[in-house]
């Protein structure tokens, strides 16, 4: 049994649930600043250089986790507190729900400008041409996708690899958000960051979909619908991971996700997920947030249990 790590994961998850992200001097923002400064110095239109950037920074974050792990191995109280702080730092489940809540408030009030202003904190698509239905769909999709990225995946890697897993995963995901998207600048430089993120999220995304099926009845959703839509529609999505999470959520809530998305000058037409469902409404944002919370808290419980069952090395 690894009680210090298990307790730290539980305390960190509780801190995120009660407090959301740290408001000042967020370590992830600091990591992003370092990554951005390094990119500015070394950027080349090269996969090899981009791979060095992604792998080097991920190794540095994971290495810090190894040092913290070794330094606290013989001090259970310190090990628990460091793990709790790291878990709180890398989780974003409650902040995700709060950002979605801001969108719902704006849409309930019929305030489209406020809703459009709130979208960049949730999704990268262009909000200028979106109406209320489009903003609601974008929000539900973002909550579904980011439940895995912001909460389930960090907990998965914390359970699997302790402090190095927590810090290494957050580094991978942050780098993907910074350079892993499609653009002329990052098409080659960001390739490795995007592929590394795909790999790190492959199992957590499927765990998220499975937990969505299990938790759907808790929010008045359909477990059979979630399972059916996940298996039928998830593989059609261009992402190997987020499509599974979005499809399961679509089936759970009985809504239709996917379709035309605009990202600046780029337009993507994505396959429909839950094509027989209805268009999402602001009320579905609330249901998606409640489902997301149930899913990531379930993942926290599994992570703690897995660490308690683990033979301490």
Characterise the protein shown here.
By secondary structure, the protein is mainly α. The protein has one domain (3-309). It is built from twelve helices and two strands; from the N terminus they run αααααααααααββα. It has helices at 3-19, 27-42, 47-72, 76-90, 93-108, 112-118, 132-179, 186-189, 191-215, 223-233, 242-253, 282-309, and strands at residues 257-263, 266-273. Strands 1-2 form a two-stranded antiparallel sheet. β1 (257-263) and β2 form a beta hairpin. α1 (3-19) packs antiparallel against α12 (282-309), α3 packs across α7 and α4 packs across α7 (132-179). The N and C termini lie close together (9 Å). The model has no long low-confidence stretch (mean pLDDT 95).
Order of helices and strands: HHHHHHHHHHHEEH
Q: What number of structural domains do the residues give?
A: 1
* Helix fraction bin: over 70%
SS content category: mainly alpha
User: What Rg, in angstroms, do the CA atoms define?
Assistant: 19 Å
The number of strands is 2
Average per-residue pLDDT, rounded, comes to 95
Largest sheet: 2 strands, antiparallel
Distance from first to last alpha carbon: 9 Å
Strand arrangement in the largest pleated sheet: 1-2
Identify low-pLDDT runs: none
Strand content: under 5%
What's the tally of helices?
Answer: 12
Shape: globular
